[in-house]
Amino acid sequence: MKNFDTTLYFITDSTGFSEEEFLCRVEQALKGGVTLLQLREKNKTTREYISLAQKVHEITKRYNVPLIIDDRIDVAMAVDAEGVHLGQSDMPVDIARRILGKDKIIGATAKTVPQALEAYKNGADNLGVGAIYPTTTKVKTVITSVDTLKEIINAVPIPVNAIGGLNKDNMSVLKDTGIAGVCVVSAIMKAENPQKAAEEIKEKFLSFK
Hints:
It is built from 8 helices and 8 strands, in the order βαβαβαβαβαβαββαα. The chain has 209 residues and is of the alpha/beta class.
């Protein structure tokens, strides 16, 4: 198994930030203890995505944190990122594994036990499960039940990470689930102090992991 840690899995969102501010926030988050960083860009051209990924990769290397590219295997290969994360509508995991080889990290999204088992069987190294909470509102409605989360964790031997509206104040729902890590976007990306936010989230998660 590859050497990576999903304890604090930071997924970026550059929306509304200048490139300089975005890169500054990425570095602050890494200083705060991020263990895995996923660059997610839905609206950039391929050239723009590669350019930004190269700059982010320079930063993540300094902190010895793997860079995961969201969706785009071509971008991951172009910058020699440590891995990719694939959603249910992206390239199938087994094909991605064939292209990338055995040494790259491949994560997959799973919302059900059958999806999780399929991803594992096809060569996924870790899973993202959620959304635990809505990501566009503050209504704390569980979308992926904790029971389903536990079922997935018990069904596969690879790290399972929770995603969706999670922050230091609402993560207690993950206690005693056996979850490997927590995926965070806005709670770090939009924080007044990304480094402090990362530190607090990681500390809270480790307190009940």
